[in-house]
Amino acid sequence: MRPSAQLQQRFTQAVETRLAALNAPPTPSVAQLRAHGEARFRALELPGRGNEFWKYSPASALMDPDLLVAAGSIGAPVQIPRLPGVTPTRLLIVEGRLVNVENVQPGVTVTPNEGPVEERDGDPRPFVALNAALSEGHVLIHIAAGSRLSAPIELVLAQGESRVARSAMPRVRVVVGAGAEVTLIERQVGTHRVWTNAVLELAIEPEANVAHHRVGLETGQGLWLTALDVDVQELAHYRLLQALAGSALRRNEVDVRLHGSGSDFEMASATFTQGGDHLDNQVAVQHLASDCRSHQTHRSIAANESRTVLNGRIYIARDAQRTDAQLSTKNLLLHKSAEVDAKPELEIYADNVKCAHGATVGSIDPEALFYLRSRGFSMRRARSVLSFAFLAGVVDAFGIQPLGDEVRATLEQAFSHVETDPEPS
């Protein structure tokens, strides 16, 4: 038996042990979620070395049986930043459990452990099934049709202070009613050796408008696997802005389905990895109706011996005529030992479309570096300024100024600590 097969077997046994140790489900909805997830997990294969979907990320890092110790007391959450001048509806989820809700605005309903279980037909992802099977509870957020929220909804996915290796399975479903407008802030907080296997579902009804700001800039030993599934209906608009740093493993599986004619998706992503960090963005956009638009901009910087991945897949169905789909990814290597894997893909079955994708990988412009050095900048400061300038277009697009300021300060501090040697090629 190959070592990978042995590891999968040990992990599967640990899952069975964890299933047997689960507390009684708090509601029938959670019981249904667990039953569906358990059945699907047992029917699916864990990703092995030959799995194309996991080609660039070590799935074995998530199959450590020690991470599946039975859930216990979560303790106090790690320190959670707050945005000055902003009073959002705030949900604090610590290791999969909703522990606090603040400032629920009119038009917003937050319901723990209730509501229908939504599943995509034929979902092949075993870790999404595992999230359901081991659920300690889920959260439904509903924004009433026609609501114009005056403040964002802030969703905080946090670790507890304990340093014991463990796992968490948060699951949140957000339903945005027809014609509603909402800004969603998602934070991923914590640096300990915790596997956070999160599932976030967004159902965006006709003519609704959603701006989703995702921030995960803490490095460390955390293992972050996030499945973001978004269904966009007719004339609705979804915008995803994200600023992410690497960790021991951070992997985002973004799956956007444009179901309704005239629906729209925009994505702008800024990522930075250093040391031995790993960051993997898997982005799949499916154009399933006519006159839909998707525009993606990805900017990534990799330093030291870190690794950054973008696999961007665009699927255009036969009925998706007059599609406008664009993807641009530009990547900056600060050191020869860093690695960037950029893989844009197009699969087109309609004959009246406007589609383009492009990928570049390069290093800091030596002339720009010389210019700053000639004006008194140290090598470290010059490279920090040029590095941030590479990501600034995405960071400046954050529509909430205090959040953009926070992202900018965190990235500038990170760049200032990157060693200047060896020089980029």
Distance N to C terminus: 42 Å
**What is the strand arrangement across the widest sheet?**
2-1-5-8-10-12-14-16-18-20
Instruction: Please tell me how large the radius of gyration is.
Output: 21 Å
Helix content: 10-25%
**Count of spatially separate domains:** 1
DSSP, total strands: 20
Which strand-content bin applies to the residues?
35-45%
Major pleated sheet:
10 strands, mixed
Note the run of SSEs as H and E: HHEEEHEEEEEEEEEEEEEEEEEHHH
Overall spatial form: globular
What value does the average pLDDT take?
A: 90
Number of helical stretches of at least 4 residues: 6
The poorly predicted ranges are 421-425
Structural class of the secondary elements? alpha/beta
Describe the structure.
The chain has helices at 3-21, 28-43, 126-133, 366-374, 379-395, 401-416, and strands at residues 89-94, 97-102, 108-112, 139-143, 153-158, 166-168, 171-176, 181-189, 194-204, 209-216, 223-232, 237-245, 249-258, 264-273, 278-287, 293-302, 307-316, 323-333, 339-348, 353-362. It has 425 residues and is α/β, with parallel strands linked by helices. The chain has one domain. The strands form 2 sheets. A 10-stranded mixed sheet has the order 2-1-5-8-10-12-14-16-18-20, with helices on one face. Strands 3, 4, 6, 7, 9, 11, 13, 15, 17 and 19 form a 10-stranded mixed sheet that branches. The two termini are 42 Å apart. Residues 421-425 have low confidence and may be disordered.
List the helices and strands and how they pair.
Elements: H1 3-21, H2 28-43, E1 89-94, E2 97-102, E3 108-112, H3 126-133, E4 139-143, E5 153-158, E6 166-168, E7 171-176, E8 181-189, E9 194-204, E10 209-216, E11 223-232, E12 237-245, E13 249-258, E14 264-273, E15 278-287, E16 293-302, E17 307-316, E18 323-333, E19 339-348, E20 353-362, H4 366-374, H5 379-395, H6 401-416
Parallel strand pairs: 1-5, 4-7, 5-8, 6-9, 7-9, 8-10, 9-11, 10-12, 11-13, 12-14, 13-15, 14-16, 15-17, 16-18, 17-19, 18-20
Antiparallel strand pairs: 1-2, 3-4
Helix pairs in contact: 2-3, 4-5, 5-6
